[in-house]
Every structure is written in structure tokens, then in C-alpha cells.
Hints:
Blueprint: H1 2-56, H2 65-76, H3 85-116, H4 126-163, H5 178-189, H6 198-203, H7 207-223, H8 230-260, H9 270-281
Amino acid sequence: MSHATTTVRDRKDALPASTTTQQSDNIAHALAGAGGGLLSMTLTYPLITLSTRAQVESKKAHSSTLDAAKRIVQREGITGLYAGLDSALFGITVTNFVYYYWYEWTRASFERAAIRAGRATKRLTTVESMIAGALAGSATVLITNPIWVVNTRMTARKAESTEQAIPGSEKPKKAPSTIGTLMALLREEGPAALFAGVLPALVLVINPILQYTIFEQLKNTVEKRRRVMPRDTFFLGAFGKLLATSITYPYITVKSRMHVASKDGPKDNIVQSLNRIIREEGWAGLYKGIPYTSQP
């Protein structure tokens, strides 16, 4: 009796410890992802600036990467390539933290379910991995979309203010801060504006799923003929990413346009936005900024 009671007590004591350990692991992965995102964003932000501005411009502007960068530096100085960097760093930190935390939490839930079901291994199946990624991606979009709306407004607004200046006119007003942009958006357009573009952002959650599916299908094709080498894995992964991005990139363009649409502008849904871009700018308009993109 005493031994049985002790065993039950030990199991009860072990459960909170296991939960605490899992929670610590989730936070550790989330912090690591946030730190990696900070470094990546800082190094690639000039390309992101070029991509964002190209996406929100009308068909009037077409230039090479080098010409676009030179034009920004001439008008705004080197800091023009980093317009909105503070909000972007905050956004990528929160984005990666939320994504990795939710992914690890979902993964742990699947692993516990596998153990309870008596499976031979607790490793996630392909479908479970996709579901975990989709859930984490959706949660991230809903939580962080307001941050990226503010960031896109800051990046695009600086371009507009400098382009509208003409010789002899008053010097353009200093670009507002992140908080200033947020408060102005809430005051002029209301809280709903913070969730502009959330639907195309949710569609973009399928990007890694597409990439993985394409990669697996290509790898299976190669395996039927010969052994898959590390070099094959690299090129197949790169091609999968390229194809997945090509399929989903129009939604990135639509999302950026929705982020900067004013309250008096057209309130198009995803399909209407896609049709408008094709009608006014041609199919190429859906892929503006893709040479610069470093988005995941």
C-alpha cells in the first residue's frame, strides 16, 4: 500500500516537472528563432525595402535593382534603405517568437497524443508536421499583422513624401515614428485598419507546405532512378522554394497593397485586387519586387 501510494505520488510530481521542462523548451526555441530573425532582418532589410516599395508602386515605376537602390540613396540618403527598420525588427522578433512557440507547443501535443495512442515512435508524420506549421503560421499572422501594417506604411510613406517634393517647395515633413504611424492610423482609419491584408497573409501560410510537398515529390522521382545525394537535396529544396514562392508571391503583392490602402481607397477583396492589378498593370504587376524579395 505504501509503495503504491509513493509511486502514484511520484508520477503526480513528475507531471508538472515534465510540463515545466516542455514550456522551457518552447520558450528556448522561440527565443532562438527571434534572435535569428533579428540578424536576418538587419542584414537583408535594404532588399525588403526595395521589394515593399516595388509592390505598392503603380505601373509607372520600373527599374533595375541597382537603379532603384541608387534612386533611394540619392533622395533620402543611405538611411532610406532602412526606413521602418525599428518596426521591422520588433515585428520579426514577435513573429518568430510566436511562430516557434506555437509550433513547438503543437508538436509536443502531437507527440503526447502519439504516446497515448501507443505508436511505435512519437515522431511527427508528414501530415502532422504540415498541420503544426499551418496552425503556428495562422496564429502568427493574426497576432502580428498590425505590426506589419505599420511597417509597410512607414516604408511606403517615406517614398511618397520624398517623391512628391519639387524644387523650390517646402521640405517634406519628417517621417513619423513607429508609434506616430500607429496612432495616426488608429485615429484616421480605426482599429480595423490594423488587420488589412490579413486574408492574403493567411493564404501565404501554405507557402512552406507547398515547398515541402514539391520537394518530397521531386525527391521521390529521383529516388526511383538513383540514390539521392546531398547535392540533390540542396537543389531540389531550392527549386521547391522557388516554385512555391512563384505560386504565392501575388498574394504578397496584394497584402502589401492592402496594408497601404487608405480608408477612402477601393475596398477590394483578394480576387478583386488580383483582377485589378492584372487589368491595370498586366500579369507582371503581380510579381513586382520579386527580384529583391527575401521573405520566407
